[in-house]
Structure formats: structure tokens, C-alpha cells
Amino acid sequence: MSTALREVETVSRERKRRTRSRTISRLNPLVVSTLQPHEYDLDPACISLVCPSCRTWVPIRVAATERATAKLVPHHTEPAGTEDPVRCPGSHRLVVINVDRETWRHRLEEGVAETNGRRSDRVVRKPQAKPAPAVMQILAGTVDDKTARKLDEAHVRGCSICSVRDDKGRTLRATDVASRCADGRRLAQLAAHTKRLAPARRKAQLDREDWNDRWAWGMRLLHEQQWDQHAKKVGDADLQRVDDALAALIQTLNPHKADAPQLTDWERADLMSAITLLATRQEQLKRRRR
Ligand SMILES: [Zn+2]
Ligand SMILES: [Zn+2]
Known about the structure:
This protein has helices at 3-21, 101-117, 132-139, 145-158, 182-227, 236-253, 265-289; strands at residues 30-31, 40-41, 48-50, 57-61, 71-72, 95-96, 163-165, 171-174. By secondary structure, the protein is of the alpha+beta class. It has 3 domains: 19-96, no CATH class; 101-198, no CATH class; 201-289. The relative contact order is 0.08. The model is unreliable at 1-21 and 116-140 (pLDDT under 50).
């Protein structure tokens, strides 16, 4: 094959690949600030929005490097399992994320804290006890899906705007999110958000426990090794244990999974000194064996 021909082939192959990965919907880019606050979720763990074409929640794929290339993932308009599903025209639609994530989160948290503290005048409610622990949880960003749902339900029961009632005044159900009061909308938003986040949250909890186990194990080993420091006999098993502990601690410092628990500065400093100590110990053991 001539060099020229090979070059042409390479170029066309590259072009084809690029076209496929850059599929874009024919619809105009969707600007996040034009959506209702309850129609998008900027939490990186579940970044998504309500697709205007099909009115379902659709994840946004955000390229790590370029925010400008955020897109709705391809999706179908029918429920999963439908034969010959039709692809929604909103698939691959460009998304302009022009709302700051911190601003969004602040509004979510602040709104809910207000909901439980202040009462708005236009809403007739039965007096309720302030759910203080829940507010603390919300402020700490630790409210879970169950708590959020309860807060939302309690609001609906007490709010004439947010509830559909029968003629005896009994609450039948919540009104649509769009026609709820400002507080109600925020609570619905929080409930939906935490629900979407729940699987990731549970997984993070498991990872955290796993990490804690590994950490405790590494520390115990380190302390044993320090107690052992003056022992005269050093076996292969000792060296192997130090090697393993060192590998585990280094792995903890450099987790391969993107969603691994983030270390605090203190944990990191602790870990660094543990690694240094273990590395020194490893050196000593190796030298002694020679
Ligand atoms: Zn859609
Ligand atoms: Zn309400």
C-alpha cells in the first residue's frame, strides 16, 4: 500500500470515529437557566434534567475537560423493554450548564431550611413541631431520601396549595410540582434529588466502610510492626505483611475508583506518615535479611 493511500485511510477512519462521538441533536442547545429549578439536578453524582421533548429525567453527560460539550444521553420515549423503541429527539442534545453548582445547591439547602423555619402567610397550615434534626441534616447535606420524602409529605398535609383535598378537607394527594407553592416545590425537588442520589449514597456508604476496614487493618499492622521493631528474628512473613500493608495504604491514598471516599487533610496526613513509617520498616526488614 502506498503511503498516500494509507494516509487517506487513516484520515477517513479518524473522521468517521469523530463524527460518531460528536453526534448532536438537531434541537437548539438547552440552556439550564431557562428551566424550572425543580427540573434539573446539578449534583455530579446524578446530574440530570427533565428533557423538554419527552418530560422524563435524563442524565447529562459532562465531559471532564470541556463543560461546553455537556449533552443529554441518548434515550427513548417509551418505557424500557418496549419493542422498536423510538429515540427521543432530545437525545444528544447539547446542554449549556450556566447555573453554578454551588448556587444550585445553596438554593436547595437554604430553601428547605426556610421551609421548616419560617412560615409563609398565604398558606394555611396546622401548627407543626419544627423538625430540627432534619434541618441540621439538610444543612450538613446529609438528608437521605426517606427523610426528604417525610418532610415533603408533612408539608403537603399542612399546605392548602400543595395538596388536593376532598370536600371533607382530607388530603388526597400532592398537586403537580409546577403548581405547588415555592416551599413545596423546593421540598419536592429535594425529595426527588435524594431519591435519585440514594443508590450512589448507599454505595458510597459501603465504600466508606470498606475503606475504614482497610484503614484499621493497616494501622493495626503498623502498630504491631512498631512493637516488633526490636524483635531479633525477622521472617519472610513479616516482610510480606509490611509489603501488603504498604500496598493497601498506597492504594487508599490513590483510589482508582472515581467515587472512592475523599480523604480529609488530616486523614491524608495520617496516611502519609503511616506510609513513610511502613516504608522505613520495609527497608529495615529487607536490609536485615541480607
Ligand atoms: Zn427526551
Ligand atoms: Zn405548599
